Amino acid sequence: YFREVREKEPYRCQLMELYSTALWHLQKEVTLSALAQELVEQDRNCAAAWCATGNCFSLQKEHDNAIKFLQRAVQVDPSFVYAYTLLGHEYVTTEELDKAMSCFRSAIRIDARHYNAWCGLGTIFSKQERYQLAEMYFKKALSINSQSSVLLCHIGVVQHALQKTDMALETLNIAISKDPKSPLCKFHRASIYFAVGRYAEALKELEELKAIVPKESLVYYLTGKVHKKLGNTHLALMHFSWATDLDPKGANSQIKEGVDPSLSRTQVEEDSSMTQAGEDYPSEGSSVPALDSSSQEGAEFVTLRATDSDESL
């Protein structure tokens, strides 16, 4: 629909920041780059144009440049809420959490119902392991956007971190009922099943996930961990091998831990990177960069980035 809008009204800037975020999630670098250039050429005083440019550099992992252009968006229009949120997520990616907090709070001051910013605050507190605050802010975001399965998923993750396992599973069940094929929700439910020793249910969930995201290394890695717990050494090694093939760099150290925990400084019984959604970004962000990465995206099950849809924040 956004593409159709561009064809019919090529000089429209309104809502093009959302179009750019959609392209960011889809990793369409060429289309996003073209959109950013066209918008900037049309109106250099349009905040949406600089948001698109920031998203373009973010997709290319040039976060410092992305921050620079998103700051420009805020400069040309200090009341443009979405720019603050995108900027906040970039700061989260670069681990500048104080600056990210300031951006999200600025967005909320301008629009108290901007749920993306509330979610951003929850993401920051979750990264800081201040899970009670994270749950509170995620629930605030949910009170504004009650149909978001992503927000429910984040709530379930922090509830599990707070040792509220039954409540976490109930929350994730609600999220999956709203979006039955959500890879993010199903992955976290499988992670919790694994953490509490419900291996058969974890395997069932993971097999369904393979059909939805057949190239997501984390799914195969967790499947390998489940088989290792069940004593299925051959199946465990096979899944670790597949995970390595899909993501040679990101999975390599994790695979070594899975095959031989002694290779790691600390034996990880419950892989935090799994149970917390692979939190490494993006956003509306959290970078669940979209599910191709979490690389921010291969399927970064976790990259959350700002967008006004229920699929990604």
* Main beta-sheet strand count, sense and barrel state: none
What class do helices, strands and sheet pairing give?
A: mainly alpha
> Regions with pLDDT < 50 over 5+ consecutive residues?
255-313
Strand content: under 5%
Radius of gyration: 19 Å
Secondary-structure element pattern, one letter each: HHHHHHHHHHHHHHHHH
Number of helices: 17
**Overall pLDDT confidence:** 83
Helix content: 55-70%
Form type: globular
According to DSSP, the number of beta strands is: 0
Termini separation comes to 19 Å
Description:
Keywords: TPR repeat. InterPro entries: TPR-like_helical_dom_sf, TPR_rpt. TPR repeats lie at residues 47-80, 81-114, 115-148, 217-250. The chain has 313 residues and is mostly helical. The chain has helices at 2-8, 16-26, 29-42, 47-59, 63-76, 81-93, 97-110, 115-127, 131-144, 149-161, 165-178, 183-195, 199-212, 217-229, 233-246, 248-259, 272-275. Helix 5 (63-76) runs antiparallel to helix 6 (81-93).
